[in-house]
Design brief:
Blueprint: E1 3-7, H1 8-18, E2 25-31, E3 34-39, E4 48-58, E5 61-67, H2 72-81, E6 91-94, E7 97-101, H3 102-107, E8 117-121, E9 124-128
Antiparallel strand pairs: 1-9, 2-3, 3-4, 4-5, 5-7, 6-7, 8-9
């Protein structure tokens, strides 16, 4: 078993360099222990900031709670109209959660690596393999 400690800022850089984000994502950074995702859903719809807070890790999936100034049901409707496609990213949005199947995502890049637990505290992730 190995333990990897990663600051939120480092995680953002890893994502930027290794993941092809959907075209509506204009910016990804971190603000006050949150991931901030700036989206541009298209014409006639204003840009929006989504804030993702680590919520939990269960069965190989990371759960982030979504916060935004926009009501969540409106935000989901906007995202639905953009035909955003998470295929191949191992991601989905359910209710007010953004879910990443991290083990599915990793298996596409690194064979034999499986995340068993993730903890988040003081702006750092502890990742247990």
């Amino acid at each position: 078993m190995a333990i990897v400690t990663c600051a939120l800022e480092e995680l953002v850089e890893i994502i930027k360099q290794n993941v092809k984000l959907p075209s509506i994502v204009e910016e990804l950074d971190c603000v006050d222990q949150q991931l901030r995702v700036k989206i541009n859903p298209g014409k006639f719809i204003p840009n929006a900031n989504l804030y993702l807070n680590f919520y939990s890790f269960c069965d190989g999936k990371i759960y982030f709670k979504i916060h935004s100034k926009l009501p969540i049901h409106f935000l989901l409707k906007i995202l639905g109209k953009t035909n955003i496609n998470f295929d191949g990213l191992g991601c989905e949005i359910k209710n007010d959660m953004f879910i990443i199947d991290i083990n599915k995502l990793l298996s596409q890049k690194i064979k034999g690596l499986k995340i068993k637990q993730i903890n988040f505290s003081k702006n750092e992730f502890e990742i247990f393999t």
